[in-house]
Amino acid sequence: MKKGTKISEETRKKMSGSKIGKKNPMYGKTHSKKIRTLLSKINKGKNNYFYGKSRSEETKRKISVGNKGKIVSIKTRKKISESKIGHKLLEETKRKISKSMTGKKHKEDTKKKIRLAHVGNKHYNWKGGKYTTYKGYVRLSGKYDCLYSNSQGSISEHKYIWWKYFPDNIMKKDECIHHINGNKQDNRIENLKKMKTLEHTKLHKFLRKERIK
C-alpha cells in the first residue's frame, strides 16, 4: 500500500472483520517467551514505528470515544498490573504526565472508582488487614459484617473474637472487653473478659498504682 493512501470506512470494516475471532491466524495461540522477548527488542526505542511521534488531538479523541464503555476483565487487569512491576518511568515522562494533569479535577464518580480500586487487599501497602492503633489495640480493616464494626466494616480484633465466640452475649453500651494478662495484642479468647466500663477503669487505675509502688 502506498504511503498516504486513505482507506475507506467500508474497507476498514472488511479488513477488521476478516481477522476477528477464529479467522485470526493467532486465534487460540500464544507466542513463546523467546518470540515475545524478540518482538519486544525489535520494537524498542528508535526501532519503534511511533518513536518520536505523537498522536493528534483528533486521534486521541477518537481513541477515547472508541474505548468508552469497554470493560477490562479481571484477568487482563492482573496481566497489565504484573507487566508494570519493576517498570520505572523516565523523569521526562513523569514531567509530561504531571503537566497534562495540572488543573484537572476528577469527577465524583471517578474519585469513587479510584478509591474502591485501592481499598483493602487491592492497596499496594496491604498487610493482611491488621494494624496496631496508637492505644496499642489490634484493629482489623476490611468488610467485617459484625455487630461491633463501624460503617467502613473496621473492628477491633478483641471485639471481633468475642463476638465470634459469644454472638448471643452482646456487649452493652456500658460494657467493654478486658485483657486479663494486660497485653492488648493478646486476643486469645481465654485472655478476654467482659466487664462494666466503670469497673474496667477502676481496675486499671488500681493496677497502675500497684506498678508505681
Give me some keywords for this one.
mainly alpha, 213 residues, 8 helices, three-stranded antiparallel beta sheet
In short:
This protein has helices at 9-17, 33-42, 57-67, 74-83, 91-101, 108-117, 157-165, 197-212, and strands spanning 130-132, 138-140, 155-156, 175-179, 192-196. The mean pLDDT is 86.
- Rg from Cα: 29 Å
Strand content: 5-15%
Side-by-side strand order of the widest sheet:
1-2-3
Question: What is the H/E order?
Answer: HHHHHHEEEHEEH
Please give the share of residues in helix. Answer: 40-55%
Ranges where pLDDT stays below 50 over 5 or more residues in a row are none
Main sheet makeup: 3 strands, antiparallel
Overall 3D geometry? elongated
Global structural class:
mainly alpha
Number of helical segments with 4 or more residues: 8
Count of DSSP strands: 5
In angstroms, what separates the terminal alpha carbons? 94 Å
The average pLDDT score comes to 86
What does this structure look like?
β1 and β2 form a beta hairpin. The longest helix has 16 residues, at 197-212. The strands form 2 sheets. Strands 1-2-3 form a 3-stranded antiparallel β-sheet. The protein has a domain at 130-212. It is built from 8 helices and 5 strands, in the order ααααααβββαββα. The termini are far apart. It has helices spanning 9-17, 33-42, 57-67, 74-83, 91-101, 108-117, 157-165, 197-212, and strands at 130-132, 138-140, 155-156, 175-179, 192-196. The protein is 40% helix and 8% strand. The mean pLDDT is 86. With 213 residues, the chain is mainly alpha-helical. The protein is elongated, with a radius of gyration of 29 Å.
